[in-house]
Amino acid sequence: MSSSNADPVYVHSKNEAYLILIVWALSFAWTVPYCYFTGYQTTSENWELTLTMGIPSWIFWGVAFPWCVSGLLSILICLFFIKDDDLGQADDELPLDE
């Protein structure tokens, strides 16, 4: 099925899904490496736990920060990108003018 013959509702929903997956992938690509490299310290190393807003910094920047950014992006996507599509009228419904 070529893109010119595809249902516009399908194309629009596919684009929305791609955008949501991109946001998820970026959050994942930030969270996992950041938490791995900054959160897992061995006991033989001399390191001091730093706090940001009362929680360990690696949790704040590795989990809370991307969570807030993803939430904000999700709200913006819902407000400005995702739109209601006209699905037409079902065969068993009466027209509105009758």
TrEMBL record:
Transmembrane segments: 17-37, 58-82
Keywords, alphabetical: Membrane, Transmembrane, Transmembrane helix
Top-rank taxon, per record: Bacteria
UniProt source species: Thalassoglobus polymorphus
Highest classification ranks of the organism: Bacteria, Pseudomonadati, Planctomycetota, Planctomycetia, Planctomycetales
The protein's name in its UniProt record: DUF997 domain-containing protein
